[in-house]
Amino acid sequence: MLNRKSPGRRPHLAPLVAVTAAAALALTACSGGSGTSGETSAAVQDQKITFIPKQLNNPYTDVVLGGGKTGAQEAGFASSQVVGPLEASASSQVSFINAETQAGTNVIVIAANDPDAVCTALGEARSAGAKIVAFDSDANPDCRDVFISQVVAKDVALIQTKLIAEQIGGSGEIAILSATANATNQNEWIKFMEEDLASNPAYKDIKLVAKVYGDDDDTKSFQEAQGLLQAHPNLKGIISPTTVGIAATARYLSTSAYKGKVALTGLGLPNEMRPFVKDGTVKEFALWDPAQLGYVAAFAGKALVEGKITGAAGDTFTAGNLGDRTVEEGGKVIVGPPTVFSTDNIDKYNF
Amino acid sequence: MSSTVKHGEKGTTPALAPGGSGGLGALLRLRELPVLVALLLLVLITYLNNPLFLSPQGVKDLLLNATIIVILAAGQTLLIITRNIDLSVGSMLGLVAFGTGSIFVAMPGLPIIVVLLLGMAFGALLGAFNGFLVTVAKVPALVITLGTLYVFRGLNNAWAGGKQYFAGDRPEAFGALSVDTVLGFPIITLLAIVVVAAVAVYMAGTRPGRDLYAIGSDPEAAKVLGIKVSQRVFLAFLANGALAGLAGVLYASRFNSVGATTGTGMELDVVAAAVVGGVAIFGGSGTVAGAALGALLLTTITSSLTALRVDKFWQQAIVGILILTAIVIDRLASLRTARKLRISEARNV
Asked: Which ipTM did the prediction report?
């Protein structure tokens, strides 16, 4: 659920991102001067915004889109709608983008299933005058104006290592239960976690013994959790940086002899984790507020349409009641820090 | 065609083995034996490497992992033996599981037994729809159920949307069905064993059960013999649907979330379990106990490879090799039977 796939490209990703980001900056700098200036004064009141999530009927996505709808209303768009595929495959979004281009939609907000597969279609939409806001999962920086990112990847990783260290008392074996083996954001977080565990002296007694993948499938994650506990009898804690994985692991722990003996933390949805926090299986876990992601994306769309920002680093815009946001290097906009949920605050959230 | 007829003879009388060489010979010809041996070896090797594998929690996990697939495989066996198949079981399970989640939210006080029966009735309805299309339209079940796989999944998507129901939404006693044990067996596993026993008795010991083998061996011949082929096949689809419904309710008991994608892809695991367990894919041969053993073997492999810390990417390859092995054994056995029959017929002349 929280994965961005870029099959077969991982080893070269870092240099590639650097190059494309530089190219994007160069491009936006050019286009800012010529192409887009004709529309800069467009009034948002007669503009249409469309959200294209990775897949429909995904609980996490629904929360993001709920925030997007509120944001679009508050920003004053004439209409907002959601279209998208039922399965999160690489090519499934292209026909929806094409349809939006033909319908003359002014702002397309997209969570790309594959950063490159959607690129050509988005390029056509842009030449027809649409602004492209990527959110949740980035498209190739060449093909969008800005990217709204939940949080800084490193912060997400560090909060999870901090939580697990607290819960296991600073020493012992831990394991990671992730989504798919090639999910870009999962691997980025795991890399930061590994670096943090290796470099932070407070974690010198913590040993990461295994990384397993539940493919964001309830049944599979459940069995992977079982396997972890069987293969590593001394395991003291599990980090699961994916909402499906943490819920499945929590369900297994709460129904097994390991309840209360093995700590669990990671990224989860409060509604899904509530019973496990209340029955003591899980002490604390983290997540950003997904609704804010859609909310900020809608306001970024507004700022682009009004010509207030172009996606260049240093541009600022107001994201409704969340206050000002600044566009960072590579056209990235960060929504906010992750929230930690525990028995004290979990009832205040409904997503 | 001829080889499947001979399968039929072998499959319908596994224990009697006409002209057999005593009890041991019959035992060695049992199609379930290699599966059982493989299962025992697997458990033993894993246990020697990791004693936790057979700890009380470990055994309980092994049994629970197999339970739902065992029930589905029992239903699927009824169909495969009649030379049919139902690929929509994953989608049926998903619909019933989501229905179970919904019904507990709407009526939290409903007795669990009522929910179980409602789930089975819902599944039977879906299965009857498959059976109706197959027997009336006379289109191969493979095509019909491939269609209903998507139809049922589409209904589930439309019904559930992004909604999911979690274990916390259901009564604690319902979740306890897959936690509490009786004599070391989780309650839902005992249910699965009862199902397998009931289907096994029906298949081996009743007239309609034997008819299913006859239909799978040669549908035309079965019709000539006066067997009500359409009726039997329809009922097999209905029964398979009811069992998928039962599995759907138990899924909701065991796992945390039920939603639009619950059960996706499960049909292939189920067919694989039946084939590995010695149920011939062209019908007429195999037993429900074999299919149950096949399901237990496949789920145990996953657990044991994890317990042995074997890279999980190997797991699928190993399952694939097992399926191929099962098919090769099947082919060799049928060739041998054919040769034997030829020789004995030659003597009779």
From this structure: 0.76
User: What number of other Cβ atoms are within 10 A of residue B48's Cβ?
Assistant: 9
Of B68, B57, B65, B244, residue with least CA distance to A220: B65
Give the three-class secondary structure for A154: helix
Residues counted in chain B: 349
For residues B289 and B303, what is the distance between their CA atoms, to the nearest angstrom? 21
Is any Cβ of chain B less than 8 angstroms from the Cβ of A91? no
B184: exposed, middle or buried (C-beta count within 10 Å: 0-12, 13-18, 19+)? exposed
**By the CB < 8 Å criterion, does A132 face chain B?**
no
Can you tell me the distance from the alpha carbon of B131 to that of A153, in angstroms, rounded to the nearest whole number?
A: 52
* Rounded Cα distance, A108 and A301, in Å: 8
pLDDT, tens digit, for every residue of B263-294? Answer: 998 999 999 999 999 898 888 989 999 999 99
DSSP B55: S
The three-state secondary structure class of A5 is: strand
**Topology (CATH) of B30-347:** ABC transporter involved in vitamin B12 uptake, BtuC (1.10.3470)
- Encoding tokens for residue A242? 């994916």
How far does the CA of residue B312 sit from the closest CA of chain A (Å)? 8
| Closest C-alpha among A262, A198, A202 to residue A228 | A262
Whether residue B281 contacts residue B263, with contact meaning beta carbons closer than 8 Å, is answered with no
- Cβ of A255 within 8 Å of Cβ of B178? The answer is yes
Domain boundaries, chain B: 30-347
Looking at the complex, does the CB of residue A178 fall below 8 Å from at least one CB of chain B? no
Please tell me the distance from the alpha carbon of residue B85 to that of residue B271, in angstroms, as a whole number. Answer: 8
Q: What's the predicted TM-score (pTM) here?
A: 0.77
> What's the pLDDT tens digit per position in B79-108?
999 999 999 999 999 999 999 999 999 998
Three-state DSSP at A266 gives strand
User: Under a CB-based contact definition with an 8 Å cutoff, are residues B38 and B297 in contact?
Assistant: yes
Q: Which residues pair with A238 in a beta bridge?
A: A175, A264
For chain A, how far is it from start to end, CA to CA, in angstroms? 15
